């Protein structure tokens, strides 16, 4: 990401990926290709998978209760990130085109080819409903693999999205701040290393959290200001991070 060149949608997607990574997920974007030249069938903002034996005890922080994880299950999340609360819904191609959903599940490589059509068919109505909290959190279970759709809209408020399962900025910022800014020094987790180890995309976000004074509550507006109006410290000083 170029200096001072962040756009809000890009910040929102980076926040989603960072939050899921902190919770033990491998994350990726995905383009579902089209046979028609110059087009694609759809694009996934964030595809995330978490394996059941994931632990990181040296950090001393468990996963967030928001994610409603279950012991012994692989968790696959198909994430749609929105910047407008009025547009919070899954891309129509995800639930209207069975072939698109099957292609996504094939790409992840965690389901057998025999199971994919059945899982995709069961997942389609859940994605169509979108914000239904019960359906979305439960997802579809196949053996020990749970497949779910997660909507994310950092600028939205709970009042704007009542009764829905949607990842909002208060949850993202709360959990990230707990991870990045421990109140007590960790005995088994060195908190000094370069910001740049997070990569060009996430390093500026990590830097924002590290720049907060003790006791300061992070906010989305402050993060916007930090990324869109200021030159990141990683480029100027490469100040070590604290994790």
Provide structural commentary.
- The protein has 243 residues and is an alpha/beta fold.
- The chain has one domain.
- It contains 9 helices and 8 strands.
- It has helices spanning 8-22, 92-96, 98-108, 116-129, 133-138, 169-180, 199-210, 220-229, 233-236; strands spanning 26-33, 40-50, 74-81, 140-142, 145-152, 166-167, 193-194, 240-241.
- The strands form 2 sheets. Strands 1, 2, 3, 4, 5 and 6 form a 6-stranded mixed β-sheet that branches. Strands 7-8 form a two-stranded antiparallel ribbon.
- A hairpin with a 2-residue loop joins strand 4 and strand 5.
- Helix 1 (8-22) crosses helix 6 (169-180) and helix 3 (98-108) packs across helix 4 (116-129).
- The longest helix is centred in the first third of the chain and has 15 residues, at 8-22.
Task: Compose a concise summary of this entry.
With 243 residues, this protein is an alpha/beta fold. Helix content is 37%, strand content 18%. The protein is built from nine helices and eight strands.
């Amino acid at each position: 990401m170029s200096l001072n060149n962040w756009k809000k949608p890009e910040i929102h997607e980076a926040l989603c990926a960072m939050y899921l990574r902190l919770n033990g997920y491998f994350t990726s974007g995905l383009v579902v290709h089209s046979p028609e030249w110059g087009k694609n069938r759809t694009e996934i903002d964030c595809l995330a998978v978490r394996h059941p034996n994931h632990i990181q005890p040296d950090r001393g922080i468990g996963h967030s209760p928001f994610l409603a994880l279950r012991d012994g299950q692989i968790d696959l999340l198909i994430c749609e990130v929105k910047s407008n609360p009025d547009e919070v819904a899954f891309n129509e191609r995800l639930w209207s085109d069975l072939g698109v959903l099957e292609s996504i599940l094939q790409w992840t490589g965690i389901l057998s080819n025999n199971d994919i059509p059945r899982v995709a068919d069961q997942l389609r109505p859940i994605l169509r409903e979108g914000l239904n909290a019960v359906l979305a959190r439960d997802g579809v279970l196949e053996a020990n693999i749970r497949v779910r759709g997660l909507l994310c809209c950092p600028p939205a408020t709970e009042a704007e999205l009542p009764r829905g399962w949607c990842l909002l900025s208060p949850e993202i910022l709360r959990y990230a701040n707990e991870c990045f800014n421990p109140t007590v020094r960790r005995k088994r987790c060195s908190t000094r290393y370069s910001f740049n180890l997070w990569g060009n995309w996430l390093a500026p976000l990590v830097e924002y959290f590290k720049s907060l004074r003790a006791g300061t509550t992070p906010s989305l507006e402050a993060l916007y200001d930090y990324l869109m109006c200021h030159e990141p410290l990683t480029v100027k000083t490469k100040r070590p991070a604290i994790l």
